[in-house]
Amino acid sequence: MRTAWTAAELMDTEFPDPKWAVPSLISEGVNLLAGPPKVGKSWMSLGLGLSVAAGGDPRGPACARRSDSGHTVPFAATGRQRGHRQLAGPQP
User: Fold this and answer.
1) Which residues of the chain have pLDDT under 70?
2) In a domain, 15, yes or no
3) How many CA atoms are closer than 13 Å to the CA of 70, on its beta-carbon side?
4) Beta carbons within 10 angstroms of residue 21's beta carbon
5) Is 51 exposed, middle or buried (0-12, 13-18, 19+ CB in 10 A)?
6) How far, in Å, CA of 8 to CA of 19, rounded?
7) Structural domain tally of the chain?
């Protein structure tokens, strides 16, 4: 597997089209969702992850249901535990 590229090699290489977890929004692999505090990033990522895991289309019920589901791994690097507890829901 290559670990280094020159700019010319990178520009001349044909890469396959990405596979989309959320069509035209989030591709398979690692993605970064960033923005100012308190705008709903955690809730958006939770909703998108649940939809992808269930095989649904996160754009809404009017869109065609996907036939495949995917694996999602939530990772929050905010450093605040309170919000994580809210996402986890009540604990016994």
Assistant:
1) 61-69, 74-92
2) no
3) 20
4) 21
5) buried
6) 25
7) 1
With H, G, I as helix, E, B as strand and everything else as coil, classify residue 82: helix
Inside any domain, residue 38: yes
pTM > 0.70: no
Classify residue 1: in a domain, yes or no. Answer: no
CA atoms of 30 and 35, how far apart (whole Å): 17
Three-state SS letters, 37-78: CCCCHHHHHHHHHHHHHHCCCCCCCCCCCCCCCCCCCCCCCC
The range of the structural domain enclosing residue 85 comes to: 31-92
Backbone angles phi, psi at 81, to 5 degrees: -85, -25
State how far the Cα of 50 lies from the Cα of 70, in Å rounded to an integer: 10
